[in-house]
From TrEMBL:
It comes from Ancylobacter radicis. Residues 5-62 form the HTH lysR-type domain. This is LysR family transcriptional regulator. The keyword Secreted does not apply. It holds the Pfam family LysR_substrate. InterPro entries: LysR-type_TF_proteobact-type, LysR_HTH_N, LysR_subst-bd, WH-like_DNA-bd_sf, WH_DNA-bd_sf. Gene3D superfamilies: Periplasmic binding protein-like II (3.40.190.10), Winged helix-like DNA-binding domain superfamily/Winged helix DNA-binding domain (1.10.10.10). Belongs to the LysR transcriptional regulatory family. It comes from the Bacteria. Keywords: DNA-binding, Transcription, Transcription regulation.
Length: 296
């Protein structure tokens, strides 16, 4: 435990020793000369030594005062430099982007490092939720949403269309729609936030494909798209999922899309609060999202 005199007394001592004047020390510290004199007398009493030779118009450090003044001045200089560095350090700026759980996990998280590289003065915060956030209230700076809209009070910009198709692990050997009769169908229930007519389902797929007698209710059901995709990757069956969300797996061959038809979905949109041009965080996110998904 450090046993130090009061900081105010040390400040008075350092200033008076450096300026060789109680009056000038008082002016620098914004107190009266009497206060400076009182603090130094208390410090001398605590230490049991005289720190100054008091003269008519100035003061001079005693030998003991000089021995103490150097370390005290160095200490205050070090503290001042540390405080100054903190004061001039650029404040971290945070941009918060909200999106559905699956979109965040599969498309935004893998791109997060590119955001930091593109905008080094910003930190990215990803908010994953299928329920929409209140952008007007500042819960996020922008959002990516799937749906038909409308989005009252918000600026909406198209990003990309969504499509759905059957995907599975190549080793399952599923090659034609007829193979579905002997395959495990993977169902997802995570698009409850979208209009029912646009939600992909094996029943809808069978109707469009003209498959009669397919048990469209059996198989494995999961309540989120990411889990359904992971089940397909693990070879647990064939899933009817977003081609946007499995683009990386299709490109690398981890998953295959053995046949159609492809079901057309709705669109992803970038949503921003009104007057977003006045919000730097929204502008940064708009630029980043536009660059990342320009090809959509």
């Amino acid at each position: 435990m450090r046993r130090l005199p009061p900081l105010a007394a040390l400040r008075a001592f350092e200033a008076a020793g450096r300026l060789e004047s109680f009056k000038r020390a008082a002016a620098e510290l914004g107190v009266t000369p009497t206060a400076i004199s009182h603090q130094i007398r208390q410090l001398e009493a605590e230490l049991g030594v005289a720190l100054f030779h008091r003269q008519t118009r100035k003061v001079a450090l005693t030998e003991e005062g000089r021995a103490l003044h150097g370390p005290v001045r160095l200490g205050f200089d070090t503290m001042a430099e540390a405080v100054d560095r903190l004061r001039h350090r650029p404040a971290r700026q945070v941009a918060t982007l909200s999106a559905t759980v699956a979109f965040t996990a599969r498309l935004l998280v893998p791109r997060a490092a590119r955001f930091r590289a593109r905008f080094p003065g910003w930190d990215l915060r990803l908010h994953a939720a299928d329920e929409p956030v209140d952008l007007a209230a500042g819960e996020a700076d922008a959002a990516i949403r799937y749906g038909a809209g409308p989005y009252p009070g918000l600026q909406a910009e198209d990003l990309m269309a969504e499509r759905f198709a059957p995907v599975c692990a190549p080793h399952l050997g599923i090659a034609t729609p007829d193979d579905l009769a002997h395959a495990t169908l993977i169902h997802t229930e995570s698009l409850s936030f979208a209009p029912q007519a646009s939600v992909p389902s094996w029943r809808r797929f069978a109707d469009i494909a003209g498959l009669r007698g397919l048990d469209v209710a059996g198989g494995i059901s999961l309540n989120d798209e990411s889990s359904a995709i992971q089940a397909a990757i693990a070879g647990q069956g064939i899933a009817l999922v977003s081609l946007t969300l499995v683009a990386a797996e299709l490109a690398t061959g981890i998953l295959t899309q053995p046949f159609g038809p492809i079901l057309e979905g709705l669109r992803y949109r970038f949503l921003a609060p009104a007057r977003s041009s006045e919000r730097p965080a929204t502008q940064v996110l708009r630029q980043w999202v536009s660059e990342e998904f320009a090809a959509g």
